[in-house]
Amino acid sequence: MRAGGRLPGDPVPDPGLGPDEGRRISYALGFVRRLPPLLLVVGAFYDYFTPQAFTAAPFFTAAPLVAAPLYSRRSTVLTGLASVAVVLAIHIRLGIVLHTDAITEAATVATVAVLAVLINLLVRRSSEQLASAREIAEAAQRAVLPEPAERIGGFAIAARYEAAQEGAFIGGDLYAVQDTPHGVRLVVGDVRGKGMGAVAAVAVVIGAFREAAEQEATLEAVAQRLERALAREGTRRDGLDAFEGFTTAVLAELPHGDSVVRIVDRGHPPPLLLHEDGTVRTLQVQEPALPLGMGELGVWPDRAEEFAFPGGATLLVHTDGLSEARDSRGVFYDPGARLAGRTFRTPEALLGILAKEVRRYSGGWMTDDMAMIAVRHP
Fold first, then answer.
1. Taking residues 336-343, what's their average pLDDT?
2. What 3-state class would DSSP assign to 151?
């Protein structure tokens, strides 16, 4: 499983921005990071070549202040020292180092340089605390979403989790695969919300799935167990700790020795079946039910539908982070059309290529996390 990460102090991009906005922000940040040395150079020329009554103090004080939230502590200290050194060098060269105005200017630049270092310390500490909290949350997510074995029940399996952005809040995408007496069963879902609340809901869904997958004779009964588990956990929580909403999910069952797959769809994007000859089929059920956690809106019975799953074919189940990735024109990524006519050596290769293509398609600015499971029939 993979999730995006970032270094302390790095800016956190807005997952809602499009690729063009993201590139503009990246260019702006790159320019701002080059400002401190540029301000020192401009200030030096201004102070040296203008009459003594003019001062370049604003340039020299701005340089360490700009560096404070963007540079490391060492670089911020060096920028502050450089600002003071340039001011003193110019004053010595002009022979005004002991003049009242010159002393005031040097003292002002030195004071601002010290303040810039203090600001840098505060920014770095806040960034480190945020990074630590993010790492804890990601560790919790990895704990509830362990990598499945490469082969389960005779099927080749691969799973992948991709965070929407580096540094973005972790979301509620989930997956689980389990070999049971009834066949290999799997679930892929998407919990509404983000952060630790979403991870808690993921833990509830996966815990209930692992138990129900072993005990329930039908896939419909497994879905009902997940529904009851979310409802039960929701009544235990109140206030800010309450679950925010629903969970879309696809449950699939691959019976041992049969070339079929049974699917229950709970308001989730339909799986894709990739045949050996490159043909892609969308496994759209005729009667999808409401998402998990919405049982109070009415009775909508689960019905598992059966599809052929021939040898050599690959089943791809994914969250909407894949199918709702958009390019710079706002056009959605269509995995069915993109995968048509192509073959992949292994399920892992399929997911790796998909992840790279979606990143490239969206310009690196995806709006949602993405979870995928690929299962190849032997």
1. 90
2. strand
CB contact at 8 A, 97 and 91: yes
pLDDT at residue number 5: 35
Rounded to whole angstroms, the Cα distance separating 76 from 39 reads 14
Distance from C-alpha of 140 to C-alpha of 143, rounded to nearest angstrom: 5
Beta-strand ranges (E) seen in 147-223 are 151-152, 155-162, 171-180, 183-194
Which tens digit of pLDDT belongs to each residue from 142-172?
Answer: 666 778 889 998 899 999 988 765 554 556 7
Token output for 3: 């999730």
Q: From residue 247, how far is each of 172, 188, 323, 338 by CA, in Å? A: 9, 10, 17, 27
Nearest-5° Cα angle at 154, 151 to 155: 60
Nearest to 192 by CA among 184, 202, 183, 182: 202
Find the Cα–Cα–Cα–Cα dihedral 241, 242, 248, 251, rounded to 10°.
80
35-63 pLDDT tens trace: 899 999 998 888 888 887 788 888 889 99
Angle at 360 (CA atoms; ends 357, 365), nearest 5 degrees: 120
Spatial distance between the Cα atoms of 107 and 84, rounded to a whole number of angstroms: 9
Q: Measured at the alpha carbon of residue 249, what is the angle toward residues 245 and 254, in degrees to the nearest 5?
A: 160
Residue 308 one-letter amino acid:
A
The amino acid present at 89, given as its one-letter code, is A
Q: Which residues of 274-286 are buried (b: 16+ CB within 10 A; e: fewer)?
A: beeeeebbebebe
Is residue 9 very low, low, confident or very high in pLDDT (cuts 50, 70, 90)?
very low
